[in-house]
Specification:
The chain is mainly alpha-helical. The chain has one domain. The protein is about 65% helix and about 5% strand. The chain is built from 15 helices and 4 strands. It has helices at about 15-35, 55-70, 80-100, 105-125, 130-160, 180-200, 205-225, 225-245, 245-265, 270-280, 290-310, 320-325, 355-385, 390-405, 415-430; strands at about 160-165, 165-170, 335-340, 340-345. The strands form 2 sheets. The chain has a two-stranded antiparallel sheet with strand order 1-2. It has a two-stranded antiparallel sheet with strand order 3-4. It is globular. It starts with 16 loop residues before the first helix and ends in a 13-residue tail after the last helix.
Length: about 450
Amino acid sequence: MATAVTTVPAPARVPEPRDWVRRAGALSPVLAVIALLLVPGGGAQGGTGGTGTVADAASGLLVLICLVRLLRGGARPLTRTAAVVLGLPVFGICLAAVTSNDPASSLPGVARYVQVFVLVPAAVLLTIRDRRDFAVVAWGVVALALVQGAVGVGQFLTGTGASYQGEDIRAVGTFGATDVMGMATVVAYGLVIVTGIALGSPAGRTRTAALVCAALLVVPLLLSFSRGAWIATVLACGIQLLLGGVRRAARVTLAVGALAVVLVGGLGIGSEMVKERVTSITRVTAAPDQSVTDRYTMWAAAGRMWRSEPLTGVGLKGFPHYRDSHASVALSAGSDTAGAGAGYRKQPLLSPHNMYLLVLGEQGLIGLLALAGSWLALLVGALRRRRTGAECALVAGGLLAWQLIDFFYADIGGPSTVLMSVVFGLAAWWALAPGPEGPPEVRGA
C-alpha cells in the first residue's frame, strides 16, 4: 500500500543584514536610474530623439553591468520565450532603418528604440531575482512619484510651474516646461503601482501605506492638467479594480469619487481649471483648441506617411523630415512653453504624439506588428500568472495597461522615457520569468 508523504514547508528565514546589503547592491543599478530622474534636465521631445540625461547614462551603465554579470556567469540568461518576446521589436526597427532613404540618419533612432524597448527591459528582468526585488523596484518608482508630485504641488501653490492659461501653475516637477508630460507620467506610474499593491495585499501596513500614497498622488496628477494621463490612469486603475473583483471595484469607485469631491469641490484644489480641462476632453471634436487641432493634423500626416510606405515606413526619425509634406495647413508652427524656471519658447512639433501612428509612419506595418506584438505578449503573460501572485500581477498588468492606453496620446521622448523602459522591465520579469507557477516566492519576507 502506498504511503502518503506529507511535505512540511521550510521555516521562514529571517533575512540577515548581509542579505540586505547584497540585495541592495544587486538592485542599485536599477534604483540609480530611478533616482537620477530627480536631476533636472531637458531633452529632445518626441520621436526617437534621445534625451541625453544622467538617467539615460545610468541606464546604459545598467545594461553594461548586466552584460558583465552574464559573461561572468553570475546571472541567469534569458529564457527562449523571453528572448523572442523582448527581441521581436529589433526586427522591425532594423528593417525600417535599412530600408530608409537615409539609413545614417536613422541610426540614432535605432539606438533609442533598442535601448528603451529591448536592452533596458532585459537588464531589469535579469537584475530582479524574486518578488521582494520586484517590490523594492516598484516602491522605488512610487518614491520618485511622491517626490516629483510634491515638487509639482509646490509649483502650483507658489505659481512657479509651467505656463497654463497665462499662469505659471502647471505641475511639471523637475522635468521643466519642455516636458510637461514627464511628471504626469511618473505620478501615474506610482498611482497605478500603489493601486495594484492595495488591491493585491492583505489588510495590514502594506495596504495602508499604499492607500495613503494613492491619496497623495491623486493631487499632483490632477494639477498636471494632462488629459492623456488622466484617461490612461482612470482606465488602467479600472482594469485593476475589475481584476480584483466586481464588488470591491464598486466600493473603491465610490470612495475615489468621494475623495475627488473633497479635493476638488470641498478644498477647491484647482477646481475651476480641472473642471475646464475635464470638460475639454468631450469637446475635442466639437470645438478643439489649437493643441488638439495640431495633434489631429499630425496623426493624419503619420497616416499619409504610412500609406506612402505601408510595409517599412519612411524610416526611423523620418517623421520630422516628412511632416510638412504630409501635413495640412492647419498645423501650427509649434506649441508655446514657458514657466518652471524657463523663458518663453516655441516647442517644435516633431512627433504625432501617438506611439502607434509614429511607429506605423516610421516603421510601417511590419514594425508596428513586431513592437505591439511584444507589448501584447507581455500583457498576456502578466495576466496569465495573476493567480500565482495577485499583487505582482495587478502591478505589472496595470502598468502595461496604462502604457498601452497612454500610447494613444503620447510617444517616446523626454527624460521620463527611460523610466518607461524600467516599467517594461518590471512587467517583463513577472510575465517572462521562468517557472510554471510564476516567479519564485520569497521566504521570510
